[in-house]
Amino acid sequence: MTRIWNDPAEFADEMIAGFVAANERYVRRVSGGVVRSTVVPTGQVAVVVGGGSGHYPAFGGLVGQGLAHGAAMGNLFASPSTQQILSVAKAADAGAGVFFTYGNYAGDVLNFDAAQDRLRAAGVACETVTVTDDIFSARPDEKQKRRGIAGDLTVFRVAAAAAEAGYPLTEVARVAALANERTRSIGVAFSGCTLPGAPEPLFTVPEGRMAIGLGIHGEPGVDETDIPTADGLAELLVSRLLDEVPDGVSADGARAVPILNGLGSLKYEEMFVVYRRIAELLADAGIQAVDPHVGEYCTSFDMAGTSLTLFWLDDELERLWDTPVDTPAYRRGSVTTAARADAAADEPAEVTAIPPADDESCAAATIVADAVATIAATVDEHVDELGRMDSIAGDGDHGIGMQRGSHAARDAALTARDAGAGAETVLVRAADAWADKAGGTSGALWGVILTSLAGKLGDSGTPQPADVASGVAAGLAAVMAYGKAEVGDKTMVDALVPFSGELTRSVDAGADLADAWSAAADAATRAAASTADLLPRLGRARTHGQNSVGTPDPGAHSLALIVTAVGALLDGNERN
Amino acid sequence: MTRIWNDPAEFADEMIAGFVAANERYVRRVSGGVVRSTVVPTGQVAVVVGGGSGHYPAFGGLVGQGLAHGAAMGNLFASPSTQQILSVAKAADAGAGVFFTYGNYAGDVLNFDAAQDRLRAAGVACETVTVTDDIFSARPDEKQKRRGIAGDLTVFRVAAAAAEAGYPLTEVARVAALANERTRSIGVAFSGCTLPGAPEPLFTVPEGRMAIGLGIHGEPGVDETDIPTADGLAELLVSRLLDEVPDGVSADGARAVPILNGLGSLKYEEMFVVYRRIAELLADAGIQAVDPHVGEYCTSFDMAGTSLTLFWLDDELERLWDTPVDTPAYRRGSVTTAARADAAADEPAEVTAIPPADDESCAAATIVADAVATIAATVDEHVDELGRMDSIAGDGDHGIGMQRGSHAARDAALTARDAGAGAETVLVRAADAWADKAGGTSGALWGVILTSLAGKLGDSGTPQPADVASGVAAGLAAVMAYGKAEVGDKTMVDALVPFSGELTRSVDAGADLADAWSAAADAATRAAASTADLLPRLGRARTHGQNSVGTPDPGAHSLALIVTAVGALLDGNERN
């Protein structure tokens, strides 16, 4: 369990502050994460990694000479926001483009992809390789859906070594993809972890039992057994990995790096007892173990568990692997220490002027700001419930993420309204703040919905019900394009589709906004209820072949709660 | 809790085997531990560290260029035996003498001191500095009694850097003593750890509470409070350390290395949140934080807790600190990689011939071997009880240590008897095996008792009751000289004194051996019972100012059990 914090809501920020204070020799703080504090030669591709916090040394602990140039550090178990990734990437860029590499999780993919689009739009070359080493998170014929776990390290290191060797961006991407293809992991777990301030663990494993393939955020595994002996565990891990040797590799005679990674509470001594047998089994299979790693490379707070990774080398990969690294949490070989970079002051946040608005739009802006404040209050009221629902289906951060996002949106909306902004501007500011502060999948999607809706409200005149309905429809279209989810995937789309459909239908039939919105909210609530009811059963039933993209999501439930509360606000305004 | 093992009795050996398999680049296995696998220049002082296993990276993980030359690795939480330390020291010696440095625990002091005596007797120069950084384990006026915790790292590094810089042995000892004097730590704990195979934790801390000053083997602390906030914890740690700044140091303007060490289950993220505030507090006090360390340097399996160490630098210490290190678990700066040493085959164990014995002594040898087998059976029967008693008073390893020692003694005694050895030789072989395999305090003391007794039995003729009584008296004298304990210190001496006294008195009064032994065993049992009864109360009451030397010990209880069982054997022999 986690025991030490100040305010749980500030945990990630304070953790990053302490991490930077302890490691100024390696890293400096930028908005959204850290970059190297040492000089990077101009013209070197910048390798930017990232993901949620709670996995130290991943991701900030891996920034330094020979490894990452920057890490976007999200909230606990939540993807960094697009804005955070963008900020880190810009600070890390040394003029030769940016290479993104990170574990394959839906929220991270959403936000890194959006950041990549924005970098490219700004003329910065950017390529991406997601890490998909966890062989139990999807079948071999759906390898691209697999999650990334401790195998992150091999892909990150190879990409960084290539960058330091002067490879151009496309070549960095090529060797990183090759490293990913040749990296396979399998994990087991004995207990879950507890997020700071949470009353109970995010997930549990029954006493005396071992979950096979359980994800590092508690994503369901493929099997559960009694805890084996150390030798039995070694045999399980090695045999399953030998069942899936990469194409073109023959185990007998191969050279491979074994990485036995601890998730937090399974300790070094236990892992060495297991490794003793792993070494024997690899030798028996004719595999030459190169540079074995036994330690903590990607943790999940104090989760008890371990994973074994095999990184199947070829000549180029081995040459890139065998290079020096000097970072806060990971060091190999001898590094010629680079000079400390001038700590360029962080660029001040861009202050953009409030566009002019007429009185009608300013009046509407007040309703918009009230609605955003209502959203924040609704999330506050339900934050524990949302967290619990998400801990069954996902990684338990939905409540916290929604809270951080909606609070930031409320503050931004009120500030903009007080500065005389119109409806569109108030909502755009709220959307940007939400996406930036919340991170994760839900943060990105709510940012998209509110931005789309804002575009139909304008900063002049009173928005009409048809504007709102078409704005919501635009938001729905953007979410489906962006999140790649469809109805039935158990995501917020399941509630957003009936909401948008009913809103448009009612408005087209002549209803006023309050009535149309209420009818739409009812439709969303019905859809969300059936989705939410499925969660516990689905959580238990999810097996091999399904991954975190498209799995049940409490996002439908929170959407229903929010549109219902906003409906009540509109209805009250109507009556007054 | 600990979850993964094969046979708990083999855990430490298998752990070391796996550790070496994963780290052949750094270390090679020798009897008793590991030494560097890289070339050490002839004429460099060899720094040998060591202690019980279960504290990784301490101690094997700290062997490599720029740090230790060898580590004696004991059983779990048990000191390595004299023989193990001697073996590692001889393998590490590069012709310029051996420097021992380790945490100040009674068992380690006993065994390292004995190894030092034997090295010196063999013409190898040897000096020792024990680490005493834990300020809550004894009052400032008894600093030499304090335990060593994470501050080990500073003393080890300074000694090793001095050795690599070519300092002679006396100068290595001088700077190590200075480093120890300028290293102060304070620890807190939230939960205990569980030894492999143990049914329950070695010790516990009540849920929601924090023990202040609790030792890394559960040695009682000085206070207990509710778990504070992260900032509150930082303030506690820093303020207590600032209360005890070393003589001659002014905090304001000082340069100090802060080391925030995790004990196993308190994770990096939590420690960074705490470090954030520590950095502020140090700055507020005018202290320049140099090369901050936040991580795991000396753990206690999966114990949840942390310690803060401040290492107060002067120019020489800072120069020695700022040198490169490359070991399995600890790396700093750039090391010029040394060549791999020829893996000199371990010297085969010395095989010494069995001295001749007459028929009478061979008959007595059978009784001796039976008695040693009885001891092993008695320990087996009571192993859990002994472990529980020790977990109240000490580190819980007494049962396991006695088991390993008595089993080895039994096997050696039976082998010697079968080879035709006399009584003295059988018992000497048993004594050597016990001390070598058990490690810890009890292993060393039982080795001393049996060796002393053996000296009076001889390899010719039938030993007389007076021989046995004077042998036991010699054993008592040796234990008191060696272990520095007196009656009333709550150690095995409390039972051994009445046992020896009554045995001598009864024999002198004309009793046969069986009767005299039984009377003596009764006296030992009475004495042990009163000692054992005190344990739970004393365990709770031990506070600031007492340390592990001379605190209650289940050794008196196990001695009483053993002499009672041997008495029954003698009595049965008499009747037949």
Note down, in words, how this protein is organized.
The structure is a homodimer of 576-residue chains. By secondary structure, chain A is α/β, with parallel strands linked by helices. Chain A folds into 2 domains: 8-332, Rossmann fold (3-Layer(aba) Sandwich), CATH 3.40.50.10440; 359-575, Serine Threonine Protein Phosphatase 5, Tetratricopeptide repeat, CATH 1.25.40. Chain A has helices at 11-22, 82-92, 106-121, 152-164, 169-181, 230-242, 268-284, 315-321, 359-393, 398-418, 423-438, 440-457, 465-483, 493-508, 513-541, 555-575; strands at residues 27-30, 33-36, 46-53, 70-76, 98-103, 126-131, 183-191, 209-212, 223-226, 255-262, 288-289, 293-295, 304-312, 325-326, 331-332. In chain A, strands 7, 8, 9, 10, 11, 12 and 13 form a 7-stranded mixed beta sheet that branches. A 6-stranded mixed beta sheet of chain A has the order 1-2-4-3-5-6, sandwiched between helices. A two-stranded antiparallel sheet of chain A has the order 14-15. In chain A, helix 4 runs antiparallel to helix 5 (169-181). The longest helix of chain A is centred in the middle third of the chain and has 35 residues, at 359-393. Chain A is globular, with a radius of gyration of 24 Å. The N and C termini of chain A lie far apart (50 Å). Residues 533-552 of chain A have low confidence and may be disordered. At the A-B interface, helix 1, helix 6, helix 7, strand 12 and strand 15 of A face helix 1, helix 6, helix 7, strand 12 and strand 15 of B. Chains A, B: Residues 7-330 form the DhaK domain. Chains A, B: This is Homodimeric dihydroxyacetone kinase. Chains A, B: Residues 366-568 form the DhaL domain. Chains A, B: One of its GO terms (molecular function) is ATP binding.
